[in-house]
Amino acid sequence: MTYLPLELPGLALASALLVVSGAISVAFRLGLEKSISMAALRMVIQLAIVALVLKFIFEVDAPVWTGLFAIAMLAAVAYEVTSRQDRRIRGWQAFLVGAGAPFVAGLAATLFATMAVIGNEPWYAPRYLLPILGMMLGNALSGVALVLDTITEGAARERAVIETRLALGEPRFEAMGGVLGRGLKTGLMPILTAMAATGIVSLPGMMTGQILAGVSPVQAAKYQVMILFLISGATALAVLMAGLGAILLLSDDRHRLRLERLTAPRTTA
Amino acid sequence: MLRVENLKIGSLPPLSFEVAGAECLAVEGPSGAGKSRLLRAIADLDPVRGHISVDGASQREMPAASWRRLVRYAAAEPVWWTDTVRQGLPGGPAGAARIQRMMAALNLDPRLLDAPLALLSTGERQRFALIRALVDEPRVLLLDEPTAALDPANAALVEEMIRYQLLAGKSVLIASHDRGLLARLAHQRLQLARPVLPARGGRAA
User: Fold this and answer.
1) 0.90 exceeded by the pTM?
2) How many domains does the structure of chain A reveal?
């Protein structure tokens, strides 16, 4: 089996399907035509840029450029984490937790994969490092966003319970244990569901990609299994760091609840 | 002996006062004057400026959890997070005996310990919350509206319980709108109302 490259006429043909969603929008007066075309345009431009940048990075194959791309990913993670929360914790420490937890966990899992599991030479080869890092970051990011959202929302809602427990002499991690536990559980739920549903509900994108590229399904499945293990590890680590960090940031060293460090709830436009 | 020096609550002038063992201080003032904020600050639940100590031991030099076992704040609204009262009370045989005695004194049926908390009345929950605050025998009690949700008969039982705590040598601060309760229990009064100075010992920072 060989890999069939896709050419521009083929892409144009596929884009015709976009007309279907546009037609639905017009027929039912959803007013989404503009959003659909904008979203499609954004996707094409973003992917084109990423593809060209990656092509360049793979060709020069220099650690500096690989590192720069990884830093750009970190910036995107930091932006996403903050924009996904209803009530953020104020201050640079919160930023550090939100962006740092996925990055540290994602990087650790990625290095583990390239150095120990796959064993590619050199370990920093961008063809392996960057896509895996991207998958780790994406999933760890979703988990962290969920944890932070659950904990900030829970702490605000259960203020009376937490303060009563503090007043009875419980330390902060005990008094906020309920909120923390629920946050960690919520953050880990997506990856657990994904592992259980993989192969039944959907073929994962990476496995599909490898099969289309001519890799044997068994090999592709092995890679997918490894990736899911890595993702679960990275997500668990990121979720734990973010959860503990959020509790620390919402309380102080005198074990007081400090809800004034939260921003006001975002009004939904 | 609880000693409060130059405690700064909101826009109130700095507060300084002392409450000896077996002594009761009434904290009075209209709603929003800062009664709860004062009690919360003494329990170290809010960051404020000022110096607070119990028997010479300073709040800042003591771990927060130890301080709050010594200085117990009981909020006006009783809050429970477990399914039954028993799960929300500290265990241990010594505690169990004390809980039993206090339940009898507050006219609480022993069966309520294992009843679903949602089925308890507000007054029952408030009396259990008082037991929960007293069971590990803190030295200083900060009671916020301890009789607010109670009928006169049960309010009298709670008053009796507070009097017993005073006899046992505890320092008690009560924030309440119940003038009769304060008149019968209090040895000194602290009037919080802007911009009036506190009734005793107020001085500039």
Assistant:
1) no
2) 2
